[in-house]
């Protein structure tokens, strides 16, 4: 009885990773657009007045709300809120693998085709400074470069060292985080956007 119930539970749809239910979950759209009959990817330059990452280059998207039916629904909603694009005019091509930055942060990317004529000139200036497009042909031939960032654990002041072997002398494992960079004209794409972009371009190759 126990094993039968266990097998049934394991066959059910499980979370992507342990902790997904409580992680910060966001969704982004990788918008494909045609410019002069050439395929480009559209990016946003985040508003310079934003509290987080002002001026950074990003994909349309944001946090998944409890009212969103799915990560895709969140990506479409955010794209509408930021760029004014009617979700019914967006042609979804398909999902990419989620980007799991840590057990507390995951992003779900989706590739889609949008008509640049649908972008309202007065897009949400509270979130978007401007938009730009980068040719896919250029991205396919560009070699992004990488720098490592050292990440060291910082236990809280009330961490129960008395519960673990070696106590306060415990040797925490540091790790290195890859940060990728794409330099296009006067713009630099980096961070989460660059990681997702790199994965997408590698799939295309």
Automatic annotation (TrEMBL):
Nudix hydrolase domain segment(s): 23-161
Transmembrane segments: none
Domain of life: Bacteria
MF-aspect GO terms: coenzyme A diphosphatase activity; metal ion binding
Keyword Manganese: yes
Alphabetized UniProt keyword annotations: Hydrolase, Magnesium, Manganese, Metal-binding
Cofactor field: Mn(2+); Mg(2+)
Pfam family membership, one: NUDIX
EC number: 3.6.1.-
Stored Gene3D superfamilies: Nucleoside Triphosphate Pyrophosphohydrolase
Protein known as: Putative Nudix hydrolase NudL
Lineage: Bacteria, Bacillati, Bacillota, Bacilli, Bacillales
């Amino acid at each position: 009885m126990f094993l039968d119930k266990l097998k049934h539970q394991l066959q059910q749809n499980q979370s992507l990773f342990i902790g997904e239910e409580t992680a910060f979950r966001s969704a982004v759209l990788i918008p494909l657009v045609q410019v002069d009959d050439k395929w480009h990817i559209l990016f946003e330059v985040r508003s310079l007045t934003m509290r987080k990452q002002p001026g950074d280059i990003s994909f349309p998207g944001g946090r998944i709300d409890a009212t969103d039916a799915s990560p895709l629904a969140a990506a479409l909603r955010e794209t509408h809120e930021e760029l004014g694009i009617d979700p019914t005019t967006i042609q979804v091509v398909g999902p990419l693998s989620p980007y799991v930055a840590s057990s507390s942060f995951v992003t779900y990317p989706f590739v889609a085709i949008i008509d640049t004529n649908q972008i309202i000139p007065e897009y949400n200036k509270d979130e978007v400074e401007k938009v730009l497009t980068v040719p896919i042909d250029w991205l396919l031939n560009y070699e992004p470069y990488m720098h490592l960032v050292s990440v060291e654990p910082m236990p809280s002041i009330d961490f129960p060292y008395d519960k673990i072997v070696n106590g306060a002398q415990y040797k925490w494992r540091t790790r290195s985080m890859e940060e990728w960079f794409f330099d296009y004209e006067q713009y630099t794409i980096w961070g989460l956007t660059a990681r997702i972009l790199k994965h997408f371009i590698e799939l295309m190759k």
